[in-house]
Amino acid sequence: MKNSGLIHIFYGSGEGKTSAATGVALRMCGSGGRVVFTQFLKDGTSSELAALRQQPGVSLCCAATARGMVYTMNQQEKEQTARNCRRRLQEAFAMAQEADLLVLDEVIDACCLEVLELRELLDFLDNRPESLEVILTGHSLPLELEKRGDYITHMQSQRHPFDRGVPARRGIEF
């Protein structure tokens, strides 16, 4: 039986989406697989990237493109962010042709915020290499993605220190 890649979706308001995706990426590395790990709407400084950079078989497709929250950007900043995200997505798609796992961290949010086209992501998912495993993360779950997901995990926050004023801590939240 031929190995068919499946689609994993980690979404919701809770913490752990990127951590879960990173865990699967490390597991793939541990089995000798090739991973392309891409982040959108982040500044490229989160600690999981430092760990992934040390792993053989991992290609990072990340750069410091975040310039604050999209909803606070002026039109020119949003357009530049969209260009950077589209370029990163195309680069990830090209690199994934030779990979076993493609992680698209925060790609769902990038689509929902209209800095990426959901249709472009859907077209890739529908036409990806047969054995390519794909992980998508974000806060919401558009119906079109829900229909394509094989693994869907909803991360829901019940309590978080940020709610009582504790800022994000390096090594824990980023």
How would you describe the overall organization of this protein?
The protein is 37% helix and 17% strand. By secondary structure, it is of the alpha/beta class. The chain has a single domain, classed as P-loop containing nucleotide triphosphate hydrolases (Rossmann fold, 3-Layer(aba) Sandwich). The protein has a six-stranded parallel sheet, with helices on both faces. Strand 2, helix 2 and strand 3 form a beta-alpha-beta unit. The N and C termini lie far apart (40 Å). The relative contact order is 0.24. The model has no long low-confidence stretch (mean pLDDT 91).
CATH top level class name: Alpha Beta
What would CATH call the architecture? 3-Layer(aba) Sandwich
**Shape verdict:** globular
The total count of strands amounts to 6
- Mean pLDDT over the full residue set: 91
Briefly, what is this?
The protein has 174 residues and is α/β, with parallel strands linked by helices. It has helices at 17-30, 47-53, 75-96, 107-112, 118-127, 143-148, and strands spanning 7-11, 35-39, 58-61, 101-105, 133-138, 151-154. The N and C termini lie far apart (40 Å).
